Amino acid sequence: MSIATVKAIFNRWLSLLLTALVAALLAGLPGCTGGPRPSLSQGETVVHPGQPRQMNQAYLIGPGDILEVSVLSAPGISSGPYALQPGDTLLLEFHRNEYLNRNLLIRPDGMVTLPYLGEVKAAGLTARGLAQELSNRYQKYFKNPKLTLSVVNYNAPYKELQTAFTNSATGQSKLLTVALDGTLSLPLMHPLQVAGRSTTWVRDQVQPAYSKALGNVSVQIDLKEIKSNLVYVLGEVNRPGVVNMSAPMTVTQLIALSGGYKDSAGLASVVLMRPDENNHPTGRVLNINKILAKGDMGDDVLVQRYDVVYVPPSMIHQMNLAVLFGIRNMMPIQSNAALGFQYLWGAGTGFKPF
Fold first, then answer.
1. Which of 222, 255, 257 is CA-nearest to residue 236?
2. CA-to-CA distance for 327 and 286, rounded, in angstroms?
3. Given this model, what pLDDT does residue 340 score?
4. Does residue 38 sit in helix, strand or coil?
């Protein structure tokens, strides 16, 4: 190959490179710094996500989150009379028939066993109501029976619940993990679907259920550890991967948490992908350049759980790669770490390494 041929090849590639750079400059700076924007083909629509979650909106629970649940006896007087429950212990005292005095334990089936009467239902009645019931029944055996019924040990289910909730690590509370199906398993309750709900909503469901079963109690639900608030960062950032957000975060803050952007990043065309209410992917293009260069916060939206943020390579970076790839494959010389540039076609052509 002659020297004229080599010069012609170099001139051709130099001309192509200059033409590409001039075209990019004429297209304007946004075209140079940003990657390709999503195009709309016939019949295809890019759905923009709705307004981002506000800073003051409650956090919504997700699978894997850890909640701390406390159930304590609430101070104050109950609004109604106490209803007897299984596990309660009663003291029955007869006047003039003291040999019938005894302690009564309400069984799990709600019944107690009494002399002469046999099985009597006690659960669900008040102490006064049960005493009146027994007095009426004993009139069959005694003339004008006089008796007193006292509750000496009550609210056994609450005490059992307190035992279940008490441990050396957390005191009178219990750490519960939200299951992968979004349910939370609480003592004395069926699994409760809590995914997508706030801790306030969970407390409002648990409080009435426990109050009905246990009496005057107070329920506290605290978010102990966040495990499911995941977002994904891809592309031209220094640490791509998964980020578990412990606080509300914008796209710019998320990029900073991922080690910042690379020199090759196309910040004018950052893509935010988000599932809609039907779990279909939606997309939005954000111009982070406007935020960083001009302080325009219009595109710095808050990210939500399971969002995907993609920082594409800039157009100049992609052109550089294309030009370098073409030069590497078309040039008659290649780089050699030890010898510098070496001619590919071997000796005998009149060229020497330089």
1. 255
2. 34
3. 46
4. coil
